């Protein structure tokens, strides 16, 4: 066992003991504890079950594998369909059969074997300059039109957000169309793919490009950023266009949950998961992380609603995720990042 892994395991013992009170549930979370605290406080108030959170942005699967049956983790909270598939494929989750969760989480947003479930969604949209782009609608196919030559920015084609988008195009239209689209999009880039989604908004603000690919939740993060107020200007310089809103729907990705394979408090874990799946919790969580609820009966926050109405692609995320490998190969084949 290498020194890094030893340190990881020692950290687990220090932060979350493997044994505890019957009235608790231990959470391994991609997101920081303070960010989801209001959601978990609502759960404790409703059930009396206390929560403990360990923030694990990286190495979650490896840590759970190393801990094995001694793991204190009950519930896993993470983001991105790739990470949700990853915890299942890593053998660190177990199947959950709950009529309550099945009723609250639409089928397209959950694993067919019950190993993971979506909670809220973010859309992969187009950021467009308010000054230089007149239109208020667009399709993903439009991004490959020569009209936009030298006017589009994006982060790396191999980033998980873009890989999922390409996988969705393969799922909807086939590999040949996806390859042609990637080739056309590359030809329209204003610069080599670089930076994160916020950097694309900055590039629109500076005039380096007119369109960019980005996730909806970054709009909320920038609009409310008091620590770096210049990001408010970046956000104000652009508008959000939902590709294919009147067609097959906009590609979405998820924040989601799973029950850990060796959950020491499985009943409490299930109680938390059923709470998180509820319309009430989806609304709370969505407001905290600037994402859309999955249930149509649950309402997005006023800030999220201001981004625009989301009509999501109806293809199962599980089906799209299965094509991520093919998508990655296509990105390299067309030399997208070159």
Write the layout of secondary structure elements.
Blueprint: H1 3-15, E1 24-29, H2 33-47, E2 50-55, H3 60-67, E3 75-79, H4 81-89, E4 93-94, H5 99-104, E5 117-129, E6 152-153, H6 160-173, H7 175-187, H8 197-206, E7 211-215, H9 216-223, H10 230-236, E8 238-241, E9 252-260, H11 266-277, H12 279-289, E10 292-293, H13 302-305, H14 317-321, H15 324-333
Parallel strand pairs: 1-2, 1-3, 6-7
Antiparallel strand pairs: 3-9, 4-9, 5-7, 5-8, 5-9, 5-10
Helix pairs in contact: 2-12, 6-7, 6-15, 7-15, 8-10
CATH homologous superfamily (4th level) name of the largest domain = Periplasmic binding protein-like II
- Major sheet size, sense and barrel closure: 10 strands, mixed
What is the overall shape?
A: globular
Annotation, overall tally of beta strands: 10
Q: Which structural category fits the helices and strands?
A: alpha/beta
Low-pLDDT stretches: 1-21
- Helix fraction bin: 40-55%
Distance between the termini: 38 Å
Strand content: 15-25%
Oligomeric status = single chain
List the total number of helices.
15
Name the helix and strand elements from N-terminus to C-terminus, one letter apiece: HEHEHEHEHEEHHHEHHEEHHEHHH
Examine the secondary-structure arrangement and name the CATH architecture of the largest domain: 3-Layer(aba) Sandwich
CATH class category name of the largest domain: Alpha Beta
Question: Taking Cα atoms only, what radius of gyration do you get, to the nearest Å?
Answer: 20 Å
What do the pLDDT scores average to? 93
